[in-house]
Structures are given as C-alpha cells and as structure tokens.
Amino acid sequence: MDLKVFKLAANTKNHKLLKDYDYVLRQKNTFCGDEITISIKSKSKKIYKIGYSCKSCIYTQASASLLSEFFKNKSFKEINDIILELNKFCKKQTSKLPKKLSVLNKIINEKNLARKDCLLLPFITVKKMIKNL
After folding, report:
1. SS3 of 43, please?
2. Is residue 4 packed enough to be buried (19+ CB in 10 Å), middle (13-18) or exposed (0-12)?
3. β pairing state of 46-55 and 23-28
4. pLDDT digits over 104-132, tens only?
5. pLDDT digits over 11-35, tens only?
6. DSSP one-letter string for 55-124
C-alpha cells in the first residue's frame, strides 16, 4: 500500500459532519460494507463547505479526505464533469486523468484500481447529492 494513501486518510480536517448543511446523504458500498455520510453547504450551485464521516477502509477514508478539499468552491457542473472523467479512467476508457485532475492521481491511479469501488464511493455520494439540489 502506498504511503500517500495513509497520509491522505490521516488528514481529518473535514472529517466531521456540518451542523448547518443544505444536504446530507449516507451511502453504503454493497461490495464491502463501507459506509460514508457526506454533508454539504452550497451557494450559487457550488459546494461552499463539505464534511464527511465514514466507517470504512483506508481507501474510502483517503478518497473522502481528498474529495473534501478538492471539491470546495467547485460548481455542480464541474463536479459532474470530474466524476465523468473518473468513471472513464476506472473503466479503462482512458489511460490517464486530465491534467486539471492530476491532484486526484495521489490515490486514483492504476496501482489502486482494484479498489475502485472504495475510491469512488465518496464521489458517487456527492454526485447523488448535487443531483437533488
């Protein structure tokens, strides 16, 4: 396992649910049982604040930590586009992520693709959330 995964999972800056949120959603990975709850505060169709809580493996924790920093101040459209690119990469429809998403390579890379369901759980959760806003 890559040391980057541990470092990302250890960043608990946003590892708390927001008290004043616009939307909260709990999701479960049906393959392994990982659970994540994400809360967001939005402004003008952008994520203003984000928090999460999870009972999960280190891959989901690291992914949620990275997502919670990366999605701040991103528009809902940008987020949907990012998730589309991630899905293409995970389905091997493209060989690498676009340069603008290079920060996500810390965890979402060829080496960790066997854990794609764990890695994508936080992203899928946010996608479902913003679909309803």
Report:
1. strand
2. middle
3. unpaired
4. 888 888 888 889 999 999 999 999 998 87
5. 989 999 999 999 999 999 988 899 9
6. E--HHHHHHHHHHHHHTTT-BHHHHHHHHHHHHHHHTTSSSS--GGGGGGGGTSSGGGGGGHHHHHHHHH
**pLDDT, tens digit (0-9, with 9 covering 90-100), for 29-66:** 988 899 999 999 999 999 999 999 999 999 999 999 99
Amino acid (one-letter) located at 8:
L
- What domains lie within the chain, and their CATH numbers? 3-131 (3.90.1010.10)
Residue 25, phi then psi, degrees to nearest 5? -145, 135
Provide Rg for the chain, Cα atoms: 14
Rounded to whole angstroms, the Cα distance separating 77 from 54 reads: 25
Amino acid letter, residue 34: D
Residues 6+ apart with CB under 8 A from 60: 29, 34, 36, 54, 118, 119, 121, 122
Q: Is 91 exposed, middle or buried (0-12, 13-18, 19+ CB in 10 A)?
A: exposed
